[in-house]
Fold each of these.
Amino acid sequence: MIIIFKVKIPATTTNLGPGFDCLGMSVELFNFITVEKSDTLEIVIPDDEKGIIPTDDTNLIVQAMKKSYDYLGVAFIPVKITQENNIPFARGLGSSAACIVGGILAANKLSGEKLDFEEMLSLAVSMDGHPDNVLPAFLGGMTAASMDENKKVTYVKLMPHDKFQFVFIIPNFHLKTSDARKVLPNEYSFHDAVHSSGNAVVLTASLVNGLEGNLKAACEDYLHQPYRKSLIPNYDLVKNKAYALGAHAFYLSGAGPTMCCIVTGDAQLFIKSMSEYLEGIGEYKLFSSPASSKGAEIF
Ligand code: HSE
């Protein structure tokens, strides 16, 4: 069978504390989708994801392709899809966004590249519900975005200072975003809204300008982390240890359960010390990455 093309999509870390539903960043961890010609739809997934990821037309990549074809008024083009998933599933690292972005890019390629970026973004946002994961998955870097009542997205791409490394601490359980949103309140006080938006602005500018001294205070928020931390065993222990080991900031990646520490200097040394500490506490995987400047690519 002839391989037509591959799509490479980065993992994303969103919210970064106070940037709830608006701030996101791509990291150097990638999923690959291989698309081959086929007479029928066929989906191949990694062995360890069997029973977790559907291999019928409810598969999220296929859903994103269908959404794109429906928008274009094009009939579904049958293909064989092989997923190589390095982004852990349902851990707050953008695994769903990678499927959505990958599916839209694949469908666009297969149907003659008729979609412009704004159309692809709009399709992706209509599926993911918010722009903070899909934008950096498409564009790379760090993105700040807002969405109006008509779901029109206004955004800007930035690059965090290259001195920053992001160390991800991934617990050994899944947490669906929909479940992590259920614990959030429907209303917030004036104080909580003002404090969180102030921190989101300070955090964004400090990441770009390399002002690590601002990050610890700026990563605090009153919108989601105080509510979601109850879903994540050992959250406060890990947070306290991160600061004791010299992290400049600690936040919940996306909706969790992955936690992220922003460090400068030797990230591997930080990982070694944190791993030793975590051994007695639970099962975690750790990795570090800078912000990935590149977004999704077809090759
Ligand atoms: N901003 C979303 C949330 C991201 O926190 O619910 C989920 O990946």
Amino acid sequence: MRDMFDRDKKRFDKYSLQLNDILFDYSKNRINDETVTLLLQLTNEADVPAWIEKMFVGEQINHTEHRAAMHTALRDQGNQPLIVDGANILADIREERERAKQLAENIRTKKWRGATNQAITDVVNIGIGGSCLGPLMATEALKPYALHDLNVHFISNIDENHINDTLEYLNPETTFFIISSKSFTTQETLVNAETARNWHVNELGNQEYIDRHFSAVTSNVKLAKEFGIAEENIFKIWSWVGGRYSLWSSIGLPIIIAIGSEHFDELLAGAYEVDQHFRHTPLEKNIPVLMALLGIWYNNFFEVQSMAVLPYDEHLHRFPDYLQQIDMESNGKYVDRQGYEVDYTTGPVVFGGICVEAQHAFFQLLHQGTKLVPADIPAPIYDFNSIEKHHRVLMSNVFAQTEALMRGKTEEEVYEALKAKGLGEEQIKQLVPYLIFPGNRPTSTLLFNTLNAKTLGAIIALYEHKIFVQGVIWNINSFDQWGVEFGKRLAKNILHELNDAKQIKSHDSSTNGLINHYKRQRPEQKGEK
Ligand code: F6P
């Protein structure tokens, strides 16, 4: 890459694109015109443009579950009817969104009163995976736009510490729960919801209070009603939206409560602009397509196994977690659309961390490790409440780190630098090998004006579509998740085995050994409190 930059002073102009507030610089990648041409050829061979249309028009591209993948419909700003399963879903979408907005505004304006006529101060979302990570990431990212006297919390883990630590400081009279579960059968969520209801009833003493303090977001209204949620507090989502793609729906209720309806509309509008770009822009200027192709280039031609997302923005601290689910649960597949095992690698291991912390954690490996780790670098030009000195230091690291990863440091440069420091020949000779940086380590930088709702919506949609294009090229279904079912089912069986003191022999020796040790050691077995 260093040589290519030295030879072509216009490389940045050639390999960067601007979409509204976002500058996408992909010039610090191991590509040239031939690479891009061949990758675009691969895109056409995989019929990507046709698949893009299939997704937008609602074809059942999630073929194993016979479902469409219509997250784009959730933010559609047009008026063309969208027919799925014979119904115009745009009307349903907008009706449910208005209901969710109404509740959110009633809570935000303190019009909504709890059972003891108090305003709500704390909203607790109980959900996991796509029913948590998207809303959590977005509410954290848009914290500057939130009310200061209304806190939004997320409980997802079945580990009792999560719900205990959250409810410990909350007042049941001013706490409102949202039970978010597309299926309304996820064990972790239902156990947490039961515990939350018991906490509320025990503290307030009356089952009837549920109507003023509990709501649900689900595609299974019947189960939500059976749980005791009042029908007017149930918000529908649909089978044709994948959980990890659902924050645009009423799963986004915590976001609407946190930032208000107007900012939520901006989030939708940002995503919609990317949808339009994705659907109508020629492939060679199509940012999600290029993001996808860069990933394919490293994953399938350099055989790297991972990618890093390194936001230089503290408010994006939950973005890597969100991206892990949407990327790895979508493309962590080894069977193709025809049911055959693939003979190439598919979804990468996605990890990340907030910068500059990550520079003091794992950048050593990025710079001098034996593994090539392509990285995406989202960074804001200014912040909602920038302290200019801080922000400049932050941004200097964005530019310096991506340059250092690309250029590296040659033996000659190391030698000159150590000589200039006045080190003796012997000491220099001993140190030089450790101070050489191979460089040629790729990064793509997403520089955006500021992290507002519209830009966040756009960034999320860019990644949704990048992941979709990769799935199409790998000929896999990015919208099912059979891989999460097996472990869940085994856990349900083992749960029954844990309910008594009997020693277990029904598994392999490791699983038996672990269960039996656990049983022997747990306090109730040792007669301890
Ligand atoms: O992780 C498996 C999964 O099904 C995710 O796809 C989903 O987002 C999560 O569990 C929660 O599912 P639900 O919203 O149905 O509770």
Amino acid sequence: MRPTVLCFSGLDPSGGAGLQADIEAIGQSGAHAAIACTALTIQNSQQVFGFEATSKELLLAQANAVVGDLPIRCVKSGMLGTTDNIAALAEFLQQHPDYLYVLDPVLVANSGGSLGDQATLVKAFVKLIPLATIITPNTVELRALTGLEDIEQATAQLFNMGAKAVLVKGGHEDTPEHIRNALYIEGELVSETTCARLEGEYHGSGCSLASFIAGRLAQGDNIQQAVNHAETWLFHVLQQAESPTPNGQKIPKRF
Ligand code: PLP
């Protein structure tokens, strides 16, 4: 059986983001994806209309049902929705210290819609930060998590909060021609990649990247290899992304 990534993520009915992005990206990375569903969202490629979060009991029951059944090597989290779900995941990870863990600190959808109360989620994420093998914030999430505007200071602060490795994604920065991502391990910058900025907005790019990293880590890549593989793959699937409607975000064509 392929090494498995257990994802704690929400359902996006458009299929662009959330658990469908996770399943597709992890499958493309060569690993198997299992899901503990955190929430059912109501959204399309243009906006979020609402969501209903899973109870923490139901979330943990889903996760515990596959522990011991599947060869889980890595956990990946995306939308968690409530502070109860964040606390439940922290408890779960503490019970399984051998699992690698990719934390994608999702606060809002790329379309701008709410996926939970940002202020309470930020406070609760503090528990998850020291448990993560790697954290993959965009710069909006990095600033929200640390309360600091300056990217370098905010990254340093995330390490003070217990982070082990951080991939800072520059897609939300005002760089019209390119996007710069920076990977830090133990507080040190270990690699930077710059790619051309593709036209348009993409739905589920962050989920896809974090999940591909998780899939590669599950198969034995080190952090730097996993990130390099994931960035190359993501650029390719975004180049092929499809526009459902002129007003919507593009949906990555992951295979
Ligand atoms: N998870 C769910 C369920 C979502 O609906 C979204 C965005 O809509 C995300 C995660 C984050 O998506 P992105 O990868 O675009 O940041």
